[in-house]
Amino acid sequence: MTTHDEAMQKLVSREIPGVILRPVSDSPLTHNKPIESTATDKPRAVRAINRVAHALLRVGTRRLNPLMLPLAGNPRLPMLAVMYHRGRRSGRSYTTPLGARPTVDGFVIPLTFGEQANWFRNVQAAGGCVIRWKGVNYPLIDPEVIDRATARPAFSPVERVLMPIIGIEQFVRLRHAPASRDVSQDEQLYPF
Predict the structure, then answer these.
(1) What is the spatial distance between Cα 21 and Cα 145, in angstroms, rounded to a whole number?
(2) Coil vs helix vs strand at 138
(3) Per-run averaged pLDDT (10 residues), the chain, 192 residues
(4) How far apart are CA 6 and CA 102, in angstroms?
(5) What is the Cα–Cα distance from 64 to 61, expressed in whole angstroms?
(6) Mind listing the pLDDT tens digit for each residue in 130-144?
(7) Among residues 137, 52, 57, which one has the least CA distance to residue 100?
(8) Residue 161 half-sphere exposure, CB side, CA atoms within 13 Å?
(9) Which secondary-structure segment (H or E) carries 159?
């Protein structure tokens, strides 16, 4: 095993105890061809899996969001939250179901479709949003893009393993709005 393989084994063992990685060359399905990639480029198989996963997520999101909206933010389904935000150009109110995880100072949300997601661009333009999680509304401010290593503690071991497979590399961290903030301003921005 190379040092990279050993490091990967330690990571997987820490996240999912009892799992032992087997070198790819031991697989009867592999051909002994070297994989051509650069340090910044992902292997072709990983890119293909990411493309398929993203395509399925995009289609699923369009179809499932209307069905998930009544369930999101409910105390019985803590993995889903509802984000209330305003359109950056239209000023229209939007509600978006998404996966949000609480942290000590706010929430962390995966940027499944990257920084081009409309909800993220709206929140970034407004400087904040309101998240309904477990039946409680949380005004949040200061959207900040963070990497997987920074967001890692907020997620379960299974989610930590699945996110790189799906291709989620970025997250947004939102901080709780201070209690001294003018509530009338929030009501004006988010009359939900």
Answers:
(1) 32
(2) strand
(3) 62 59 46 41 68 63 66 79 92 90 94 87 94 94 94 91 85 90 49 42
(4) 32
(5) 5
(6) 999 999 999 999 999
(7) 137
(8) 13
(9) helix 157-166
Rounded to two decimals, the pTM is 0.65
Average pLDDT, the chain: 76
93-99/101-102 β-pairing: unpaired
Write out the two tokens for 31: 């051909």
Residue where the block lists tokens 């949000």: 100
Q: Are 170 and 150 in contact (CB under 8 A)?
A: no
- Residue indicated by tokens 């890119």: 47
Give pLDDT, residue 37: 37
The encoded tokens of residue 79 equal: 């993995």
Structure token digits, residue 144: 């900040």
Name the token pair of 58: 């995009």
Q: Per residue in 10-42, is it b (16+ CB within 10 Å) or e — as a string?
A: eebeeeeeeeeeeeeeeeeeeeeeeeeeeeeee
Tokens 């209690």 -> residue:
179
